[in-house]
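Changelog note: in this version the structure field was regenerated for every chain. One regenerated record is shown below for reference.
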Amino acid sequence: MNLDWNHQQHELRARYAHIGSIVRECATAATEDAPFNYEGWKRVSEEGFWRLSVPEQYGGLNGTWWDFAAALEGLASTVADLGFLLSIIAHVGCIRVLLEHGSESQKLRYLPDFLELGIGATAITEEGGGSDVARIRTRATRHSHGYRITGKKTHITNAPITTTFVLVGRIPELGAHDITLFLLSSSMKGIVVGPDEKMFGNNSSPTGDITLRDVEIDDTHILGAKGNGLEILYNTIALDRLLYGLIAAPYITPYLDEALAFIHHRHAFKKELAEHEYVQQKIVDIKMMSEVSRYMSYAALNKLITGDREASALCSMAKLLGTEGMVTAVLHLMQLFGHSGYMEGQITQLTRDVLGTRIAGGTSDIQRINIFNRMHD
């Protein structure tokens, strides 16, 4: 199992750490009304980020998912925008599902958009159902030339800005096993996206609704086999989950470095904060969280790309450890910085953003349920 980067991957991490700092500077062009960092997305795309794990025959760089993971770690270490990273995770999930389950014609048709300036989304959740796939009501009904899809998806990451998305719906005529995935372009007649939802944090990652009103499709829009959507979906969201865990360590580390400098500079009770055991404990907790989530994510990625039956559980573990660990870390950071940490600024924004990761991509409770269920397989 690959538990550390090879020379090429170290170079990728360093290269994309530099690009992440450029993306951070690009964010100044975003506004309150249009908070998404389009300039940063353009720069990431131009640097071949999406192409790293894509075969050369489809316009990729013929690398591996380990290459992509190394690059994502580098980006996460400097970009200082958790919302931007969440949009990246949503997008790359579309690339992987297309590579794994798309037909040759679908890959040729949709990959160019995903690899250039397009923005992907995976539309699963619906009103009243949340992450409960069994309650999905979006359906495709047959007509003379194919199907018509009707339904509404809610709280979808990247929905207001998506160009092409994966939709989870039903084909009722199939009977009990009718969950099916569809590949759709947001420009298709009958599709309405957005507007942006106003969130507590991560506003740089637009979320919103996708409404479908009698959208006409044919079999070329069906991803994988009809009725096999659940199996494909679970494989897709497994990657999303481990990537949440993967970004935890590099994203938190710069804040940990600031905290370390602060506790050596600040004094209390006639000695440096760093000399107090309760301060040391918080610093160590943050470091432990970072490394545990990093290596659990590596293990999950290895299981996923080798098709191991334990992959789903480990991917949920990676997300659970990473996101819950980040929540603990930001609360520690706020206490370490004291009053200045509680004032509106870097730490309070970090807290708002990190709290959202306990919900996005499947709540922490959903991850626990999945881990428990996999223990009975």
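Spot check on this record: The radius of gyration is 21 Å. The mean pLDDT is 93.
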